Amino acid sequence: MSDTLAVALVGSGSMGLNHARVIASGPRTRLTVVIDPDEAVGRAAADRHGARWAPDLEALGGCDAAVVAASTEHHFALALPIVQAGMPVLVEKPLCPSLAQTEQIVAASAAGRTVLQCGLLERFNPAVLTALRMVRAPCYVRAERHSPYAPRIRTGVGWDLLVHDVDLAVRFFGGVDPARVDVGVGHYHPSSLPDAEDVVEATLHFPQGGVASVSASRIGQRKVRRMVIQELDRTVEVDLLRRGVTAYRHTTIEGEIGTGGFRQLTEMEVPEIVGAEPLVSQLAHFVDLLDGRADPDAERASILPAHRVVDAVLAARTPVG
User: pLDDT tens-digit profile of 67-88?
Assistant: First the structure.
């Protein structure tokens, strides 16, 4: 591979613009072409970073890799031909809003030995990485991901929001699929499509006894991204928005006889959080996959657990509204 990777960006919406910025400013990447059927939007993004604009995937010639940041409902139609052409690709999460489609792309990548990464961005959140290093034996994980309503999101919160925290819960519990899921789903907003849920509450029961409760909502009035991991002797709280971690340990000190009983104390630990912007770290990992510094097979396999769980969650949904 040359010193810099020629990258095509497919899709230049709100997330695509962030990818364009990171690709164009990366030390090992250069933004070569922005592919978007909307010329005004795509050309504006391309011009901003000295790239060219093109309307379709025929412009991939001469590129080393691609990043797909189009709307979720278009991921399958865009990512599959890129993979089948043998080109490494990073696809925004979810890989597809369907387990069957996701499995088809993963299988095509495995058959062609092509690098495939899914943009499960919270994996690269410095606060999450710190918490993963701290936690040794989790018993219970609670995650909340709530947002105000965004009409541009056509899929429900299962694939849009919940997939992030399911992925993290699976990672905290050793990468294994849960043995059972209990689910409640709510449909409330008049602008949502009939099959696009607005609220999901799911409880994941893992084979070793661990439990994770994950909550996603798009009818909140503020953005919430938080996670609590409970061990027998410690609780670790993660603020994913502010990228902060606080650990708590409760102790009881018995007093001497006749002096008034005991005292309860809570010890707090606030580790320093050091790390790059998650999108920068994610792109660096993608390049590492191409350079052979990271394992493409392990990366490919890591995509499926969260997609399997979200698929099971949506299949088992019980209406709550």
Answer: 999 999 999 999 999 999 999 9
pLDDT digits (tens, 9 = 90+) for 229-266: 999 999 999 999 999 999 999 987 766 555 555 678 89
Task: Note whether 67 and 264 are within 8 A (CB).
Answer: no
Q: Rounded to whole angstroms, what are the CA distances from 39 to 55, 73, 77?
A: 7, 20, 20
DSSP one-letter string for 81-118: HHHHTT--EEEESSS-SSHHHHHHHHHHHHHHT--EEE
Average pLDDT for 311-317 = 88
The candidate with the shortest Cα–Cα distance to 249, out of 268, 228, 224, 262, is: 268
How far apart (Å, rounded) are the C-alpha atoms in residues 163 and 92?
12
127-146 b/e with 16+ CB inside 10 Å = b? bbbbbeebbeebeebbbbbb
Specify whether the CB–CB gap between 16 and 70 falls below 8 A.
Answer: yes
H helix count then E strand count, the chain: 9, 14
What pLDDT, in 10s, does the model give residues 24-74?
999 999 999 999 999 999 999 999 999 999 999 999 999 999 999 999 999
**Contact present, 46 and 53 (Cβ < 8 Å):** yes
Q: Are 267 and 248 spatial neighbours (Cβ–Cβ below 8 Å)?
A: yes
* Integer CA distances (angstroms), 302 to 74, 196, 208, in order: 22, 26, 19
What DSSP designation does 58 have?
G
Per-residue pLDDT, 1: 47
Instruction: Tell me if 70 sits within 8 A of 44, measured CB to CB.
Output: no
Is the pTM value of this prediction over 0.85? Answer: yes
Cα–Cα dist 188/193, whole Å: 10
Domains, the chain, ordered by start: 5-121+279-296 (3.40.50.720), 123-275+309-315 (3.30.360.10)
CA distance 81 to 85: 6
